Amino acid sequence: MSNPYPYLLAPLDLGFTQLKNRVLMGSMHTGLEEARGGFEKMAAYFAERAKGGVGLMVTGGIAPNRAGWVSPFAGQLTTSRQAKKHKVVTDAVHAEGGKICMQILHTGRYGYHPFNVAPSAIKSPITPFRPKALSGRGVEKTIADFIRAATLAKEAGYDGVEIMGSEGYLINQFIVKKTNKRTDEWGGSYENRIKF
Q: Which are the contacts of 171, defined by CB distance < 8 A and separation ≥ 6?
């Protein structure tokens, strides 16, 4: 019987890192990011998967700033102090021969808290909070926060980042006409909406 997936367990060179195989564990939010002792539990959780042979894991969504939280006090990466907590996770995964990326997730109008922001002040159907429309300066600050989160992820030992840009979250909210009613350089034409 022939193998229908001959490359699944073969190494994969991504240019910046090499995976031992092409088995990927996609992002899922475990809730451990916010739990007491959560980083130690996350370390054990992801290390076990690395030990089992998963080549690359992606964490649940980590916000680049408070406005991007999933809910109050949800996982975020904004300081070197927080990066040190994440290092427990990356060290555990690397000790088992695995690789791990951190997902950067800004919920935009889907954030379940009163600090949420969006391209336009259009309430989501799934939360009770109306977002504040980002100013032009706020857009640029949010982009800088994504960059800072990616830099801190590298400091924390992550092998890469995944930027959540789908499923109605902030980046998607900029791209879609229904949620982006801006008339400045961040709205209107497709080219402007995709700039974020």
A: 106, 163, 164, 165, 196
CATH of the domain at 114: 3.20.20.70
pTM reported for the whole predicted model: 0.94
Give yes or no: 169 in active site: yes
Domain assignment present for 176: no
Q: How many domains does the chain have?
A: 1
Which H or E element spans position 171? helix 170-175
φ/ψ of 163, rounded to 5, equals -100, 120
* Residue reference for tokens 């995964």: 93
List, for residues 100-113, the tens digit of each pLDDT value.
999 999 999 999 99
Q: Where are the beta strands (DSSP E) in the chain?
A: 12-13, 18-19, 24-25, 56-62, 99-104, 117-118, 132-133, 160-163
Rounded to whole angstroms, how far apart are CA atoms 24 and 43? 17
Q: What is the pLDDT of residues 125-171, one digit of tens each?
A: 999 999 999 999 999 999 999 999 999 999 999 999 999 999 999 99
> Is 159 a domain residue?
yes
Look-up of token digits 């367990």: 9
- The answer for residues whose C-beta is within 8 angstroms of residue 130's C-beta and 6 or more apart is 121, 122, 123
Query: Which entry of 5, 158, 169, 190 is annotated as an active-site residue?
Result: 169
Q: Which residues pair with 100 in a beta bridge?
A: 57
